[in-house]
Amino acid sequence: MQRLAGLVAAFALAGCAANPDARPPEDLGVVEAPEAAPVETASAAMLMPGPDIETMPFVGFDAAPALEAFKRSCDKILFRDDTSGLTRRVDWQAPCGAAVNWSGDAGEFFRSQFETVIVGDGTAFATGYYEPEILGSRTRQPGYEVPVYALPDDLERAWPADVPEDERTGRPPLGRYNEAGEFVRYFERSEIVAGALDGKVPVIAWAADPVEFFFLQIQGSGLLRLPDGDVMRIGYAGQNGREYVAIGRPMREQGLIGEGTEYPTSMQGLMGWLRANPERADEILNLNKSWIFFRNLDTDGPLGSLEVPVYARDSVAVDPKFVPYGAPVWLDMEADVADGLWIAQDTGGAIRGANRFDTFWGNGADAREIAGAMSSSGKAYLLLPKGTLARLKQ
């Protein structure tokens, strides 16, 4: 989420938009989110029927865009396995088939095709993210000196020689082969900033402000406002495999932001300090060793991890081990602006466990403000194809 407004706002950095390295406000030490569920998937969690679907207050202005978002998801969810263990590909055939030619009330579509399910105790926590816009250029020129790198050809997954065979489990780490043919960790942020990739990796654009670009990297996607006024959309292509470090915590620990300083514990405060202390900005930013690589997008919205465009107020990031991609979710939050239907189309590095959600608000000043202020508890009801719960309890 990345957001920039209000008390919590400033640290809404976990914006997802397909960046699995993205982090939310609580990961910067601003908000305490509920701990992730101790179970590994939703199928191992306590599942209960939710409210009767016929009683759900679906309304057109909310249900209609949710239906369109669900349609966009069908091309993906019909051909991928559900890691939550709740649904099978065949379960989605009926609702996806009905959605294609649905011409009636959108709320009635959801009532006719789904049932509500509570995962765990249903206690939800939601943050928000948005699509940032920063100044950029397709070509390097004065005032645009920060490279926006494409995915390097030499970024690979392999096991370093010093990792014993019996410890080589799961996915191999990301890295590169050096001149001696040894597999080593990939360059970290400080090395990339110092020019480790100069002339070796394609540059798709040049950003004007390294601080703004740093936060866009955490978000994982964004817009570049070009000198001629046009906009270029860039999206997550990959990551260098190095550690993500939330810079807010060490800045507070060093007394740079927060109580007793002129810079509040917020993203605004953090950015304010970085701009006021340019001689130390690289030192602080480089505490985060992670670097995000980008690709040029020709879509009308940023791509979520489901590989479909996400749109304001329709798309929500989830933990796919607890919420099937493409599933509708009904949120009833203390922050009323987040109430209603959302479609699970994205995820993020800190979106973990049952009933943890990151709501997407689009781009622009309003989106930035709403997403930045979003940090709310409430209830969540997962909508699954009818008959799913009965099958799971057999």
UniProtKB/TrEMBL annotation:
Keywords assigned by UniProt, alphabetized: Cell wall biogenesis/degradation, Lyase
EC primary class: lyase
Catalytic reaction list: Exolytic cleavage of the (1->4)-beta-glycosidic linkage between N-acetylmuramic acid (MurNAc) and N-acetylglucosamine (GlcNAc) residues in peptidoglycan, from either the reducing or the non-reducing ends of the peptidoglycan chains, with concomitant formation of a 1,6-anhydrobond in the MurNAc residue
Domain Lytic transglycosylase MltA positions: 133-295
Xref: SMART domains: MltA
SUPFAM superfamilies: Barwin-like endoglucanases
Domain of life: Bacteria
UniProt-listed InterPro entries: 3D_dom, MltA, MltA_B, RlpA-like_sf
E.C. code: 4.2.2.n1
PANTHER family: MEMBRANE-BOUND LYTIC MUREIN TRANSGLYCOSYLASE A (PTHR30124:SF0)
Protein's name according to its UniProt entry: peptidoglycan lytic exotransglycosylase
